[in-house]
Amino acid sequence: MPYVATFVTAKSSGQTQMHQQSVALNNLPPPIQYTQSQVQNPVSQFSEVSAVKDKNNMIKNKDDQCVDESTSEKTEVKWPTKRKINKKEQKKRLNARMRRLVCPKSPLMVFSELYKDVPIKLEDRLHNNNFVVFTASIEIDGQVYTGDHVSKTQAKQKACENFLRVMLAKKMNERPEKKDECFEESKIEDESVTSSKPKGPPQEDFPWPHFASLAMHNLIAHWELQPVTKVMPEETVKTPPKVGGMKKFPNKPENYNPVQLLHQMSPGIQFTETTINSNNPSCFEVKCKMDGVTFAGKGSTKKAAKKECAIATIKYFWNFDFHTVEKK
Questions:
Q1: Domain DRBM spans what residues (predicted)?
Q2: Do domains 88-171 and 258-318 have the same CATH topology?
Q3: Left if phi > 0, otherwise alpha if psi is -120 to 50, otherwise beta: which for 129?
Q4: Which residue from 32, 98, 118, 247 puts its CA 20 to 30 A from 82's CA?
């Protein structure tokens, strides 16, 4: 009996397996049925698949192009549109530019801009034993240009003006000669050579803007033009307070400097200085005028001469002599 039971169980397990296999076969998809045309032309299936792939690639390429175009549009720089300038505005701009170029400059300023490394020498000499005259000299290309004046700055101005005048005269004489030479050379040159040379605006090394500035400076000086000062209304004008001097002469004037004491007693007094002899030993003279009376003082220096002039003035008006105090 036990053997029969085992056989039955084995048989039953085999039946279950067969049943499971039949169920799996029933669940499979139906087989593909090919038509006669497809059987005759099997390549058409592959062509359809390749066409689908090509369409997908085309779509991808179009998407990429759209992305590139969008990025290019973002990266492009949009420059502002040029605005048309009116003729009046063009003239105003040209006038402003010319004003900057033709700024008035003195001969010394023009010379210092053109020749920075060239020194200007100064020498002084006594004229008729009365005053000192300064002589400024400039040496360029072996030629010396000089200018004389009582002031050092004005002597330099005259020397620079003489040099610039000669420089401009040379340039004015050279211009017609150069035109004739250029006209003759243009006749000799062949057409092939002239055609190969680049054409452009004429070039020149002469500093015309500097001379235009110098001409403007001389014109303003000749016309004696001065900058316009703003006139304030009468209500807002404030008169400076009057500075009064000392009411009484000090009890101990020896404690004061004579020049300082004179300024305190009469504010606004002016001194004029003259050079008697500039060589060794030098001698200077200082004069001042007070209440219609002129006083003078001499000394080896300007300071000493001014002190003597103040001592003489104080002695005349207040009867105090600083020399007697110094001797004590």
A1: 257-319
A2: yes
A3: left
A4: 98
Q: Could you report the per-residue pLDDT of 197-213, keeping only the tens digit for each?
A: 455 567 788 999 999 99
- CATH for 258-318? 3.30.160.20
Integer Cα distance of 144 and 134 in angstroms: 16
Tell me the domain boundaries of the chain.
Answer: 88-171, 258-318
Q: Tell me the whole-structure pTM to 2 decimals.
A: 0.43
**Distance (Å, rounded) from C-alpha 157 to C-alpha 135?**
11
Residue 191 burial by Cβ neighbours in a 10 Å radius (0-12, 13-18, 19+): exposed
Cα–Cα–Cα angle for 217, 151, 132, rounded to 5 degrees:
155
In Å, how far are 97, 209, 217 from 296, measured between CA atoms? 55, 51, 40
